[in-house]
């Protein structure tokens, strides 16, 4: 309702991963602050969502689809006006480079447009009547209730909106908590939210998740929970809900996607894909390639080419021309990467690229480690950053064993040009992961493709089309067809 726009309560400072020269040497930039809500304020936002959902005839959940679409279109037009501000904040808040920040913004707008088109199509198909065994049936797609939407810091706009927009457009009311970092960039959109939607339909909350989100989940008033983050974080929050069996969840969680380089392979293509797969946005993507299995026959040339490509990636500030490697936004991340690297080196791996692992403040130069083996933390843990573990292998069974016994099951990449061998592996892995990429890096897009995973990697499927189903349910209106009104 715009209350956050005139917030008088406590504030939390927002720091940038960027350090700039100051009087006392390099100083971390403080970008601004956001409201710091406590549990009561978060529950008030939730109650506004509950009330907006319960408002009866003509209110958001029962509004005609065409009308809801108009609200979303109005929001989109206002959002487009904020492109420059949001892109700039993506660079300053999470260190995403200019090209990828622009891409994130534009991809989000495209996602909204595609969602509107997909809903029109879904609505056309759902409105059909069917006559079966003397019963006339019509399916209505209806919302679920109140949705809690939480996104990740690596795609604070795009991935958050891939649940927020479908939740809204299907008629749910929403409580939305921006990501931990990438939080200021929602500020330019607050007026657009307020002016585009009826009061209470979308409620933004800021503050410590442990206080705010925990209270919201424990209230039992959330019907659908959309969360992109860690498996343990999602599990802890779900446990708080008093009626978990009534909670629908759409979760994007942990991943350790392997890139598997087979002996017969187009090595240049494999290296090109593996570099962007492992290092775009410094490896801070759930879909990043997080471990590379390379056949011993091609290990040496693969590493040579990979390290040469890596050396050509430009480090710098996110807004500088052509920069690929940028500072990391998570406090403590550099220490964590150092600990993984030290553990791997102590257990026999070597850093094979020049300068790998060097660091300063929030910047960490990527390190390629080989040979990585099962006893190392890096073999199992999701590093979510610029460390590239390489596991040389002789027999493909070693790789099959890794995939089958991994706790993760999001995606994998197969690099090879022997169709029979690639085909056998596709068969072996098809029930282990959500997506198999052949001669290509792992990735979420195109956004019309299903995005999901197995094991600890996901719950539910998201995509332009799938998300509309995640945030709705079918109600059947069945009319007994009377003999005397058959004409
Ligand atoms: O961080 C997880 C994202 O879903 C990755 O998306 O593959 O488009 O970079 P992306």
TrEMBL record:
Keyword Zinc: no
Key words of the record: Oxidoreductase
The organism's place on the tree of life at top rank: Bacteria
InterPro entries assigned to the protein according to its UniProt record, in alphabetical order: Ald_DH/histidinol_DH (IPR016161), Ald_DH_C (IPR016163), Ald_DH_CS_CYS (IPR016160), Ald_DH_N (IPR016162), Aldehyde_DH_dom (IPR015590), Aldehyde_DH_Superfamily (IPR050740)
Keyword Oxidoreductase: yes
Domain Aldehyde dehydrogenase: 29-471
Pfam annotation, one family: Aldedh
Family indicated by similarity: Belongs to the aldehyde dehydrogenase family.
Protein name in the entry: NADP-dependent glyceraldehyde-3-phosphate dehydrogenase
């Amino acid at each position: 309702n715009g209350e956050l726009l005139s917030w008088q309560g406590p504030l939390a400072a927002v720091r940038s991963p960027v350090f700039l020269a100051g009087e006392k040497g390099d100083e971390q930039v403080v970008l601004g602050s956001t409201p710091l809500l406590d549990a009561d304020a978060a529950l008030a936002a939730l109650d506004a969502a509950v009330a907006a959902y319960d408002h009866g005839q003509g209110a958001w959940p029962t509004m005609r689809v065409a009308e809801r679409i108009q609200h979303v279109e109005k929001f989109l037009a206002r959002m487009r006006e904020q492109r420059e501000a949001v892109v700039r904040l993506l660079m300053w808040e999470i260190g995403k480079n200019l090209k990828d920040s622009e891409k994130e913004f534009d991809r989000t707008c495209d996602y909204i447009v595609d969602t509107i088109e997909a809903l029109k199509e879904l609505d056309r198909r759902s409105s059909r009547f069917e006559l079966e065994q003397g019963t006339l049936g019509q399916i209505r797609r209806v919302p679920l209730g109140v949705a809690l939407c939480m996104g990740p810091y690596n795609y604070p706009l795009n991935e958050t909106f891939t649940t927020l927009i479908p939740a809204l457009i299907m008629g749910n009311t929403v409580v939305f908590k921006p990501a931990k970092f990438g939080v200021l960039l929602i500020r330019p959109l607050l007026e657009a939210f307020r002016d585009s939607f009826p009061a209470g339909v979308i409620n933004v909350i800021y503050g410590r998740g442990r206080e705010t989100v925990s209270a919201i989940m424990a209230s039992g008033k959330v019907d659908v929970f959309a969360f992109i983050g860690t498996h343990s974080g999602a599990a802890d929050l779900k446990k708080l809900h008093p009626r978990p069996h009534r909670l629908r969840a759409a979760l994007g969680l942990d991943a350790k996607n392997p890139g598997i380089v087979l002996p017969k392979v187009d090595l240049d293509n494999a290296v090109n894909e593996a570099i962007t797969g492992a290092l775009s946005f410094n490896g801070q993507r759930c879909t990043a390639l997080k471990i590379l299995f390379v056949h011993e026959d091609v290990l040496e040339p693969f590493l040579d080419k990979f390290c040469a490509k890596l050396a050509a990636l430009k480090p710098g500030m996110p807004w500088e021309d052509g920069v690929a490697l940028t500072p990391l936004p998570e406090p403590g991340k550099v220490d964590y990467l150092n600990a993984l690297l030290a553990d791997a080196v102590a257990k026999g791996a070597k850093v094979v690229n020049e300068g790998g692992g060097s660091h300063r403040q929030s910047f960490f130069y990527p390190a390629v480690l080989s040979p990585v083996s099962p006893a190392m933390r890096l073999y199992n843990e999701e590093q979510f950053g610029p460390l590239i573990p390489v596991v040389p292998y002789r027999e493909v069974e070693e790789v099959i064993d890794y995939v089958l016994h991994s706790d993760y099951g999001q995606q994998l990449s197969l690099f090879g040009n022997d169709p029979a061998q690639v085909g056998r592996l596709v068969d072996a892995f098809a029930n282990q992961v959500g997506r198999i990429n052949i001669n290509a890096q792992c990735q979420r897009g195109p956004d019309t493709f299903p995005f999901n995973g197995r094991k600890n990697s996901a719950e539910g499927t998201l995509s332009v089309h799938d998300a509309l189903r995640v945030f709705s349910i079918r109600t059947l209106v069945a009319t007994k067809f009377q003999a005397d009104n058959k004409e």
